[in-house]
């Protein structure tokens, strides 16, 4: 079965689970602890209902939007995800081409498996660089300068990983970055020959942004030293748009706005860090109320359909981001799988708009 078998995000996930090694699938799919945080956010999304409207002319509908004043062909973009090439060889650049085609932001992870310079080139400028602070910050600010030199205009500081969360599913498989292949991993790869042979042909994915002089990245290194002074230094060092991602507390959000941050991204990191974190979808309208109608507010975490994305926009987000389901689509059927799922998400949103009497995605927040 190929791309034509993908009719939903769950189809993509099911096919990816069949084709990926267990270790890789659980790295992409897993959440913190017993994964109740992910379930809580899913329940919050499911609990929101939409208001069907009838006898409205919805024959012409637009999925266009804008972000930081730039027009986009969709109201959703690509969340930063580490080591995407584990899902399929060349996955980073498949996502970059999608971003270029639809003029949407492609979040380029600090731990991407393709250099940031190549991704922004293929994305035709539609790329944002996602930044982790780690260690003493020396390497972090080197990456900031490198992103600036590469032409990035938007920096996304991820703040919800002072320490990497424990995800038992990946720990049980002995997942390490970079790979350390022992007997268990060898058997896992041998039982998934399609993925393994493709990996051998294209080479083992690397954390490409750290292949520079004077910097080595340790995924487990503490990121706990970042504080409000760090943010102030970053704000001074970065002339473009500064987004802070991973915010789930209204008091923090208000403080970030006062500190000169250009946008906030409500996110639980896909429930991968703190199992007991509140459901981001429940926090979203509270953030909108506290920050006012005009402040840029983005959302990711747990979105599985175009209808989910529409709910997030209606709940207060200006723009939303899909994450791991895009990796599942590429694992299932490569570029064709990604294209298929992207079209599914677009169709789901457009149909939901028709059912609810909407022709565009411009919301009057002042009268909400």
UniProtKB/TrEMBL annotation:
Binding site for FMN: 80-82, 109, 130, 158, 245, 267, 300-304, 323-324
Residues the entry annotates as binding glyoxylate: 27, 132, 167, 269, 272
Domain (FMN hydroxy acid dehydrogenase) ranges: 1-368
Entry-linked PROSITE patterns: FMN_HYDROXY_ACID_DH_2
Enzyme active site: 269 (proton acceptor)
GO molecular function: FMN binding; L-lactate dehydrogenase (NAD+) activity
Cofactor(s) the protein needs: FMN
GO cellular component, one term: plasma membrane
Pfam families: FMN_dh
Keywords: Flavoprotein, FMN, Oxidoreductase
GO biological process terms held by the UniProt record: aerobic respiration
Superkingdom field: Bacteria
Recorded family membership: Belongs to the FMN-dependent alpha-hydroxy acid dehydrogenase family.
Protein name, entry field: Alpha-hydroxy-acid oxidizing protein
Organism of provenance: Sulfitobacter sediminilitoris
């Amino acid at each position: 079965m190929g791309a034509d078998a993908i009719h939903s995000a769950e189809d993509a996930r099911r096919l990816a689970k069949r084709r990926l090694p267990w270790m890789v699938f659980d790295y992409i799919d897993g959440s913190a602890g017993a994964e109740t945080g992910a379930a809580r956010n899913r329940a919050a999304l499911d609990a929101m209902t939409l208001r069907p409207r009838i006898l409205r002319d919805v024959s012409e509908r637009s999925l266009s939007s804008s972000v930081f004043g730039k027009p986009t062909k969709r109201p959703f973009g690509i969340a930063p995800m580490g080591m995407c090439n584990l899902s399929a060889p060349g996955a980073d650049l498949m996502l970059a081409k999608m971003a270029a085609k639809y003029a949407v932001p492609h979040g380029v992870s600090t731990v991407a498996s393709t250099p940031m310079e190549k991704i922004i080139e293929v994305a035709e400028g539609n790329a944002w660089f996602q930044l982790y602070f780690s260690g003493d910050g020396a390497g972090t600010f080197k990456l900031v300068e490198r992103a600036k030199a590469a032409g990035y205009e938007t920096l996304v500081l991820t703040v919800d990983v002072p320490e990497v969360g424990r995800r038992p599913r990946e720990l049980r498989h002995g997942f390490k970055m970079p790979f350390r292949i022992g007997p268990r991993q060898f058997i896992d790869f041998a039982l998934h020959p399609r993925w393994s042979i493709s990996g051998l042909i294209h080479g083992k994915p690397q954390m490409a942004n750290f292949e520079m002089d004077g910097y080595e990245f340790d995924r487990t290194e503490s990121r706990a030293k970042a504080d409000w002074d760090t943010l102030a230094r970053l704000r001074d060092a970065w002339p473009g748009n500064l987004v802070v991602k991973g915010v789930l507390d209204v008091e923090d959000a208000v403080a970030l706005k006062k500190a000169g941050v250009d946008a906030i991204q409500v996110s639980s990191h896909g429930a991968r860090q703190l199992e007991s974190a509140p459901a981001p979808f429940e926090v979203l309208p509270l953030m909108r109320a506290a920050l006012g109608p005009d402040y840029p507010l983005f959302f990711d975490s747990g979105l599985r359909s175009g209808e989910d994305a529409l709910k997030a926009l209606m709940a207060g987000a200006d723009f939303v981001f899909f994450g791991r389901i895009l990796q599942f689509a590429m694992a299932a059927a490569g570029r064709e799988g990604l294209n298929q799922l992207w079209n599914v998400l677009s169709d789901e949103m457009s149909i939901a708009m028709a059912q609810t009497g909407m022709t565009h995605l411009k919301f009057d927040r002042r009268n909400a």
